[in-house]
Amino acid sequence: MKYRDSGVNIDAAQAALARAKAAVRSTWDQRVRSDLGTFGGLFSPSPGEPLLVASIDGVGTKVKIAALVERYDTVGQDLVNHCVNDILVQGAEPLFFLDYFATGRLAPGALEGVLAGVARACRENGCALLGGETAEMPGLYAIGDFDLAGCIVGRVAERDLIDGSAIRQGDRIWGLPSTGLHTNGYSLARKVVFEQAGHQAGDVVAPLDVPIGEALLAVHRSYLPHVRALWRAFGRAAVHGLAHITGGGFTDNVPRVVPEGLCARIDTRAWAVPPLFRLLGELGQVDREEMYRVFNMGVGMVVFLPPDLDASALADVGAVPIGEVAEGADKVSLRF
User: Fold this and answer.
1) In sequence order, which ranges of the chain are alpha helices (DSSP H)?
2) pLDDT tens figures, 228-255
3) Is the pTM of this model over 0.90?
4) How far apart are CA 74 and CA 61, in angstroms?
5) 3-state secondary structure of 314
């Protein structure tokens, strides 16, 4: 099975965005400090002040699992943590957050649960929840359906900006473990688990030891405390690059930070793939290249560091060595 078999075509989306680039860039002036394709957009409000970093995202069709299980707080946490990670890869600390909740008709407990999760994650990340928008749109969304998106703004001093330009040949690549699927690949996961295999959310399916619905709702991890720990241990300049492994998996996200002429050589055998990913691959007969383009496969953040750092600090945050940077034109190479 391919991701497009579930109705998602990554290549078509990228092609459409490429066609829209000229229109987007026509709105820019000298205050815009990033190009399209970065995890967060950079904006300089005035010379000498910290750069503002903004990102907007959603949790995809994970909301369908939340509605099925009738538990809504976890997707609220997912939303915030995902956005925190997207600006973190550029060295930014979060400032404030706004949410968007849209539905055909409000289900009892849905909005309250989502906002409770959003607020909890904002508190945990030191991020103010300024407000948001709630929209009821019958006729656009079916009864019981809802969608969720969020916008985050953070800041980073220009000297502390992480953009991948410091990545060098010989740098070591480390992986920070994920807590599950996080917030991408759910269209394929739902098709495999519920449509093709015919499982129910409450089924405990080997090799899992919890109901499949619970496993699919595991909260997207915030890597802010992990990266802060690395900054304290090694200094900010030691973190040469960060890649958040979300939609597009390793194949599309790692190249976003690797400079031209270099290749991130990642050995997928360096870590144990969690049972949930193995289950999805087996049930859907998904080939391994597709798995590593759709899912994070147990590594939610990739960190590029110099080769001579004390490994004990890395072990303290659960980091696993997964590869190194070499010369090459492909930007990323996966060894199976």
Assistant:
1) 10-25, 62-69, 73-88, 110-125, 186-190, 212-216, 224-234, 249-253, 275-284, 288-294, 311-316
2) 999 999 999 999 999 999 999 999 999 9
3) yes
4) 13
5) helix
